[in-house]
Design a protein that fits this description.
Blueprint lengths: L1 E10 L2 E11 L15 H8 L7 E6 L2 E2 H4 L1 H4 L17 H22 L2
Antiparallel strand pairs: 1-2, 1-3, 3-4
Length: about 110
């Protein structure tokens, strides 16, 4: 079972959602709907462990997904709306670009921390 408790997402200066609670039991589906910019993709990225919630917890089988580690991640398949690869770059160049972007986002979030 995957559950969220008081989940909050903040991107930049904007709170996309807060106080989000849900449970997804085995064999069930979770439909995520909302207007453009409401945090749908951010929520899915949180559920995959790719984005850290500003507040709250995501748990898999009553264990925080960060603590569950590979046991949790081995059960996931995440396919975003775009693959994020640049056709004009080779594999190494795509990896380097992704690393630069990740470092930039990490630095930005550090600067915005209280």
């Amino acid at each position: 079972m995957l559950s969220a408790n008081q989940l909050e997402c903040v991107r930049g200066e904007r709170r996309l959602f807060s106080g989000l609670d849900f449970k997804v039991e085995p064999g069930t589906l979770l439909a995520v709907r909302g207007v453009n910019g409401s945090g749908k993709t951010s929520l899915l990225r949180m559920m995959c462990g790719l984005l850290t919630p500003a507040a709250g917890r995501l748990c898999w089988n009553d264990c925080d997904i960060g603590e569950a580690g590979e046991d949790y991640r081995s059960q996931l398949i995440y396919l975003g709306h775009l693959n994020g690869l640049k056709d004009e770059l080779n594999a190494t160049e795509n990896l380097r670009l992704s690393l630069r972007v990740a470092r930039s986002e990490e630095h930005t979030s550090e600067l915005q921390s209280p």
